[in-house]
Amino acid sequence: MFEQLKEILAGKLQVPADLITMEATPEAIELDSLAVVELSLVLDKELGIKISDDTLAQAGTVGDIVRLMEEQGAAL
Question: What is the predicted pLDDT for the residue at 73?
């Protein structure tokens, strides 16, 4: 899941790939509120994973987002 998220962040949201680590905070990778909404839409459209932007905004690190993706992916 981390690699998929990294691909989305780097490819679709223009986050520099070298900044994306499991420990990186949304602020560290410059993930603002608009990017969080966009990420929510891309996860749903491309992976069928529904995570609200509010839930994503509460994630403290990229690793937390990966865990949310795994939880939602397992629920499919």
Answer: 82
